Amino acid sequence: MAEQPKTIAIVGGGLVGCLQACYLAKRGYTVNVYEKRSDMRKIDFVSDGISINLAMSTRAIEALKEVGLDQVVLEQTIRMKGRMIHELDGRCWDYPYGGKDDFIRSVGRQKLNEILLTAAEKYPKVKVHFEMKLQSCDLNRGHLTFLNKENEKVEDTSDLILGCDGAHSLVRREMIKYTRMDFSQAYIPHGYVEISMPARVTSVGTEFAMQQNYLHIWPRNEFMLIGLPNQDKSFTGTLFMSFERFDQLNTRKDALTFFKERFPDSVDLFGEEHLLSTFEKWKVSGLISVKCNPFHYKDRCALMGDAAHAVVPFYGQGMNCGMEDCLVFKDALDAHPDDMGLALEDFSRRRTADAHAICDLAMYNYIEMRSMVNSKLFLLRRKIDRFLHWLMPRTWIPLYSTVTFSRLPYSQCISNKAWQDKVVNRTLAGLSLAGGFLTLLSLLQLFRERLPLTVTVSYK
After folding, report:
1. Which residues contact 232 (CB under 8 A, 6 or more apart)?
2. Which of 23, 300, 372, 382 is deepest in the core (most CB within 10 A)?
């Protein structure tokens, strides 16, 4: 039986690292959080190459609720009840995510991180160390070496190391040396840039430039633009497109022509000059998907969040999945309270299949968001799903609802969708067969009615 750790080092003071510190401090552990960035609460804006907007749903809310942070966070969010689709000709139409009480929430990454940092530091046994960049770690000894802002070495030894240090995790890189880890990463050929949409100034104050309670999407098959609302009544627009297509926009004229041709209604919403000034300084960021297995090494180390399962952002589940890791890890600790080795092994077993599943779902949803929402067949299937859910609310729950508005394991969400597809396909095939049979009977009847006349004529 492995000994219970007395001190735990968390590498990475982002969303998952800070939330996990709260969970562990609540259990009585001494926790040191090491963050390579400076304290974001002391500067106005943090830009680290990742999107500042997040879509929060059930999994993250339930994880926050466990440490009493759900309400304070929800106060900083804006409800989004569905997608608002912007057609090329400027027409807009919407479809809801689910029932009237089903909505996701737009939240700023920095504000959320600040809340979690402050919450973690309220625990007497939690200490957050900023501007500490990991250099190396000896997992068997629990020894960590960092460089501080003065470029001096800082060393620490802990009983357990948790890697919450993102998609390019240094802890994961070290863990690969210690265990037979299956690891893969994939960059998709599309990148993204962000373009803010300022609040509209009116005679009575400021207001949103678009309807606020929607995730706005301009789907254009090979690329897309989305917009999420912020509490200051602005929107954060994000353009997803292939790097090759980005490279074709070399001048202000190129950029303006592109937006006027592909997203004509967005130009006035962004403001032409604001759009062009953003273009002149934008930097296209890449999108990576990471899978690995296992998530742990003995009783010495484990990976969580993007370090274990980075996903592309198109299902809005990266943060939700990472925060849910904290709940799953809690369940594993509850199941093995006296053996950290078994708890970490259990965490890996519970989480790897589901992490791989959401990675695959996120890839699929990019195709759905940028092109399939334009398909009449796809929209018909959505209507069928909503009707069957209304008819059998406990039995028939659409894929998006199980992923976003429940804590059903991601792998089971996929299994449930496969079963639904089988039912729908067989039903449609049966109806088609029945329709074909009825058509055949009708033709035979017509033929029978004309047969005597034909026979009579031929014999004459």
Report:
1. 199
2. 300
Radius of gyration, CA atoms only, the chain? 27
Residue with tokens 């997803």: 240
Q: List the one residue out of 405, 409, 432 whose CA is nearest residue 105.
A: 405
The H-or-E segment that residue 456 falls in is helix 410-459
Residue closest to 409 by CA, chosen among 328, 344, 333, 341: 328
Give the start-to-end residue ranges of the domains of the chain.
7-79+105-185+291-370, 187-285
* Surface-to-core class of residue 13, CB atoms within 10 Å of its CB (0-12 exposed, 13-18 middle, 19+ buried): buried
List, as one string, the DSSP characters of 172-208: HHHHHHHS--EEEEEEEEEEEEEEEEPPEEETTEEE-
The DSSP code for 408 is -
Structure tokens given for 164: 């919450």
Q: Kindly state the tokens that stand for 295.
A: 């998530």
Q: Dump pLDDT digits (tens) for 259-276.
A: 999 999 999 999 999 999
Amino acid 389: pLDDT: 80
| DSSP per-residue string spanning 345-365 | HHHHHHHHHHHHHHHHHHHHH
On whether the 7-79+105-185+291-370 domain is CATH 3.90.1720.10, my answer is no
CA distances from 412 to 211, 214, 416 (A): 34, 28, 6
Rounded distance, CA 4 to CA 27, Å? Answer: 12
Dihedral-angle region of residue 271 (phi above 0 means left; psi in -120 to 50 means alpha; beta otherwise)? left
d(CA 410, CA 416): 10
pLDDT confidence of 6, banded at 50, 70, 90?
confident
